[in-house]
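Sanity check. The docking grid for phenylalanine depends on where the pocket ends up, so I'm generating a full predicted complex first rather than guessing from homology. Inputs follow.
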Amino acid sequence: MKPEDLERLSAESLARVSACADGSALAAVERDLLGKGGVVAGLLASIGGLEAADRRAVGEGANALKQTVLAAIAERETAFEAERLEMERGGDGFDPTLVGTREARGSLHPVTLVSRQLEDVFLSMGYRVLDGPEVELDHYNFVGLNIPSDHPARDMQDTFWCEPAPDGTDGADLLLRTHTSCVQVRALEVLEPPFRAIVPGRVFRQEATDATHEHTFHQMEGLVVGQGITVGHLIGTMRTFLREAFGREIEVRLRPGYFPFVEPGFELDAACPFCEEGADSCRVCKGSRWIELCPCGMVHPAVLEMAGIDTDVWNGFAFGLGVSRMAMLRYGIEDIRHLLGGDLRFLEQFS
Ligand code: PHE
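Predicted complex below; grid placement will be based on this.
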């Protein structure tokens, strides 16, 4: 090898590197040029046989060749990597190496969480879960519940009527249901007694909103029809349900309450599950020890008869749980307007 041959050898080596089409070809060329018994090694081995004058030039040339080849190989590898990425991107600018954005995950609404828990409790007691329309007929929301059109009890619930307004002549009597009790009437029409049912659902009332009143909220109706049903069954059911829902025995009391579709009608209070006995600073019961939990009563015979059920054989009880209110109690939510306010910072707290 003469020093003048070094230039040719270098040009040939670089041409071989740049001719490589992929990583494995490049590896083979690298082995040939720089590996054991390769071109550079051969050059260095030949130095001993050279004339003294050429030794230095060939030695330096061999080292320079090695550096040149290494640099060319590194450059080629970088180009291969860029090509690979471009292929992955499909040429559309998508860069899989960038850090991804976190996918926002939803969570269950507190009303859904409480509603499902209550459903589970009643399902375990042999109840079936029913559904009904939110846009309802006057008949199911009022008349079939013993609230005829001239009955003063209609004033208890401020109703959203649908257009056209009911003027008594065109028979237009659609409304947004003011309670889930309308599904009592629907159930009585289609189910064969005996049966037990709950109806979770959304109800609507036209009223001024504040921390405890909302135009849209959630209830859960309960209806049991059987033979020889008594107030004792109603109380027993409520106690069982409270025990399951709160995980311990909770005392209840009944006060008289008026609803045209139950007789006798009651307001059922539960001993405040959130305060110690006698505590007068409880945020929930304000020291009264009782919380108003659920209006209820024995189904009025007129309701059963209108639905064609023989009241000599069948009777029953009904109750109306405030699911929105239970969610507020359960999670310490102070303003009912948070529930449907749609603020993600509020909703993200529940899962
Ligand atoms: N539907 C009544 C209300 O919303 C509650 C209720 C249900 C009362 C069942 C008695 C029996 O106010």
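Relevant for the grid: The radius of gyration is 41 Å.
Also worth noting: DSSP finds eleven helices and nine strands in the chain.
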